[in-house]
Amino acid sequence: MKSKLLLIYTVIITAVLFTGCEKKFTIGLLMDNYETERWQRDKDLFIAHVNELGGDVITEAAYGDASVQYEQAKKMLEDGIDALVVVAVDQNEAAKIVDLAHTYNVGVLSYDRLIRNCDLDLYISFDNVEVGTLQAEYISKVCPRGNYALIGGAVTDNNAFLLKIGQMGVLQPFVERGDIRIVFDQFADRWAEDEGYRLMKECLKKNEHIDAVIAGNDKLVTGVLRALNEKDPNQGVNIAGQDAELQACQRIVAGEQTMTVYKPIEAIAAKAADFAMQMASREKFKNLNLSVNNGKRMVPAILLPAMIVNKETIKLTVVADGYLKENKIYE
Ligand code: GAL
């Protein structure tokens, strides 16, 4: 009896000691900027999910400066983090962050934007080729002939190129038949309204009439529309964007923008939090069956689906998900 009791005590004490010693993981989160509405939400949801899983998050934003992002990474690594999650300012420059993290034996998760040419540990994003496909399929259905302008996303962001692959996969047969003419095709320096404005101005200098614009995201569309409206507010141009920003949804309802693509941020934030915690605990990743070439290696990856938002589907998508409030869109 005595020895049985002793055994029970030992088990209890060991359990208490182990729980007490359980390490609380700290995840470093490096953001680019908050210019596009989604990023504040990405950050807040990611933190909430990591907290739910018992971890802490420290976060910094580099506001478009890749060297600042590197310094922020360095500081976090020196202070001691268990995993690093990066929304890269620059797809190539951020490789240095991955190399540095590995010298500290810390894994890096590329969030939304792929970091190229390095031994990246994990990439979680949406299917960005599919985003481009959805945009081009939609616009080419409503506007199967005419002059098209492609206002691409930031040159520093791999997503901009993936979108273009998806768009051209759809548009090329129309171009070959001579139905669609791509009269302007440029990438922006940044995902920003002023870049959309600058590029659309340039496009309109060279082209009298534009029938359709496929833009990298809704912020670019805001600038595109400013340039178009300065020329002639009644042109009725078909316009595609991405991100389902409030302003874009309002424009869709008002008939000023044709469609946008919605990417459920809750889904990417939850997945990234889960895998960042696995990475912190040095577990082998579970349930990964996809990988993406980043120029140096096949990186284990998760690509989430996106969806079309038009006048008819606003309520079924962004409103139903609680992403945007119905009264705000229709106010
Ligand atoms: C991209 C992302 C887009 C958009 C953009 C602006 O990487 O795929 O959804 O948010 O950044 O920051």
Structure at a glance:
The protein has 2 domains: 160 residues, Rossmann fold; 158 residues, Response regulator (Rossmann fold, 3-Layer(aba) Sandwich).
Q: Which tags fit this structure?
A:
331 residues, alpha/beta, Rossmann fold, seven-stranded mixed sheet, 47% helix, globular, binds beta-D-galactopyranose
- What CATH first level of the largest domain would be assigned? Alpha Beta
The best one-word shape is globular
Number of helical segments with 4 or more residues: 12
Mean pLDDT: 94
Low-confidence stretches: 16-20
Our Rg estimate from Cα atoms comes to 23 Å
Largest sheet: 7 strands, mixed
Structural class: alpha/beta
How many domains would you count in the coordinates?
2
Q: What is the fold-level CATH name, i.e. the topology of the largest domain?
A: Rossmann fold
The arrangement of helices and strands along the chain is HEHEHEHEEHEHEHEHEHEHEEEHH
Q: Roughly how many Å apart are the termini? A: 75 Å
Number of strands: 13
Bound molecules: beta-D-galactopyranose
Oligomer: single chain
Strand order of the largest sheet: 2-1-3-4-5-12-11
Q: Strand-residue fraction?
A: 15-25%
